[in-house]
Amino acid sequence: MTDTTAHDRIAALVADHPVLLFMKGTPLFPQCGFSMRAVQLLDQLGVEYDSVDVLQDMEIRQGIKEFSDWPTIPQLYVKGEFVGGSDIMTEMWEAGELHQLMDGVPTRAA
Length: 110
Known about the structure:
Elements: H1 2-16, E1 19-23, E2 25-26, E3 29-30, H2 33-45, E4 50-53, H3 58-68, E5 75-78, E6 81-84, H4 86-95, H5 97-101
Parallel strand pairs: 1-4
Antiparallel strand pairs: 1-5, 2-3, 5-6
């Protein structure tokens, strides 16, 4: 069944990456404003993160919405836990919570 395959692939991606952003496009070329905002926040934190371009894989694009029970993209996962989209990330940034969530996450080399 396709859904199980997408679910298993997503679960493996989330498990394998401490910080993972499912987004439209790539960090260098986001394809929507919300994905761009999410990338900007992560870049400002200076943490290492990986991304998945959902526009390249329709199974993942639909499957991630079911996996998280969240209807929109981007979606951020930190240490295996679903955080939210760019709106939640922005709220957490403003409250200082996103910084705290990234404790222990490696930072990018300058």
